[in-house]
Amino acid sequence: MAYRDNHQPPWQAESCPTWCRREHLERDHPEDRVHQSAAVEIAGVRGERGPQPRRKAVPTQLVVWATQHVEDPHTWVRLEDAETGTVALLLTVETASAVSGALAGLLGQLEASQRQTDH
Length: 119
Hints:
Low-confidence stretches: none
Order of helices and strands: EEEEEEEH
Helix content: 10-25%
Number of helices: 1
Shape: elongated
């Protein structure tokens, strides 16, 4: 039996977080009893080792989502390769927020430097 909205399977003690989009089933294996957000897909380019000192630019498709096992107090931000499902990063919300802030600051510096170079 599938459970949605205000209904939950017997094994689920608490309601889903508001961000959970996963359908929970009564027969879910204990390891599969996880909350998952909607996935955000990102098309991009990643570096791959090539002849030094250069890196090879390789197209990639990334997926980012939040996940939390029903017995885990932590919510995790998961970044993985869409093609292989290989997890690249699994971060707590606090760590993901710190990385987001650091990236925003670094990207601001790089963009400012690029604007100066373009003029």
